[in-house]
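Please, does this match?
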Amino acid sequence: MNEIINSPLLWLLCSITIMVVVGQGYAYYKLARKNAKLLGMSDEICAKSFKVGMVTAVGPALGILIVLVGMMAVLGGPITWMRLSIIVSATNEMAAAKFGADAAGVTFGGVDFTVVVLFVAWFGMALNGMGSMLSAVFFAGHLEKIRTKVVNKNPKILALVSGAAMCAIYGNLSSGTIIHGGGNVGAWLVAGIATYVLYVISQRVEKLKEYSLGIAMLVGTIAGAIVQSIVG
């Protein structure tokens, strides 16, 4: 099994996808810089925004890294690396792989997890990401038209809808983990408190603003790990 899930050919094929993603990221970066100039944004602001994004990505990346190690043992390094590079949601990818194993009637990572079941799990992961990709292709343009109409009528509505959407997203992500208790609750509470404290401090210390979200995520992650180790 290990010869298949970590074969050189599979590494090569998955690397092609990663290179495409890197190319897309670079193209998006160049497009953003081009439009920033049209909007009159200085290079300093662009560089600062880029740095904020890099720092903010540290927290989520740590969570993905932990799940990545577990997935690599069962699904192999190449596929895990590729999937988490394009989908990013480790929880969804793990769930999709488990659904594939369940569909084959075996336990994910168990002794009866054969090569055939492995392919079913991979297929389940592919289907998991297909919906969001197709939605972006077919509906992104229409959503932009709707956004333009809303802004032209009442810009405040867009701000309210955007704020409500963010609250719904974070609420949905939080509720799915809080119900399990333990370290999840500790991470949620500490990260929330850290976010507020850092927000208050950043009103006086301007340079802290760009790092506050990343720091809050890191503090929450550490607190969750500590609480989980205590309560078991």
